[in-house]
């Protein structure tokens, strides 16, 4: 690694201002390669959502485009109405977040006894219902603010490993793998039934989405660490081919 970007809401304020120089000091004390750079991303709170927005399929380059981007985290769901100008991500308007309705599935333990069983563990169907509601509500909020329809494509970053349309790992959203090998049509059909909207869903691992913010930026190779409910890790691609650019005057 030649550079590590630090992001996430936790590092957006004073803690982040102290965390990055402290990390540099620790690496220096351990004799780590002095050529390794540690930096706070310019978009600490918006890293995952902004990176996911770069994945929206290309549309018109002459008229403004608007889309719903959803970030499914372990603690809450963040949603944004994203506007594109001449193909580039130009504006993020934050919609109200939605708290996750379940408890952390693996409570901490003192190591001397098995961890206590959570009061409730969401079932796969409950997770699907939660995801469906978050998207339906997000579409309604986005279009109420915009006063016009958004694109039918919804891009979602998710706290789960993603392989094609499969969600993997031990996170809460990975429970949906018990309902379908490819959750994209599953969620799309659930949204259509719940709020009469036909969508096309793209899902991206949250670390990979965050990494897309710095795709194509030197030096390579680099990494991102998103400090949230857990630590998300991603690796920016050396080239940004196929990704939307970020407008220099992003609002």
Structure description:
This protein is α/β, with parallel strands linked by helices and 251 residues long. It has a single domain (3-103, 120-234), classed as ATPase, nucleotide binding domain (Nucleotidyltransferase, domain 5, 2-Layer Sandwich). The protein is built from five helices and eleven strands, in the order E-H-E-H-E-E-E-H-E-E-E-H-E-H-E-E. The protein has helices spanning 14-29, 47-53, 124-146, 183-195, 206-212; strands at residues 3-7, 37-40, 65-72, 76-85, 88-99, 153-158, 161-163, 166-168, 200-205, 222-227, 231-234. The strands form three sheets. Strands 5-4-3-6-9 form a five-stranded mixed beta sheet, sandwiched between helices. A four-stranded mixed beta sheet has the order 2-1-10-11, sandwiched between helices. Strands 7-8 form a two-stranded antiparallel sheet. Helix 2 packs across helix 5 (206-212) and helix 3 (124-146) packs across helix 4 (183-195). The longest helix has 23 residues, at 124-146. 37% of the residues are buried. Mean pLDDT is 89; it is low at 115-121.
Keywords:
11 strands, 251 residues, Nucleotidyltransferase, domain 5, four-stranded mixed sheet, five-stranded mixed sheet, alpha/beta, globular, 5 helices
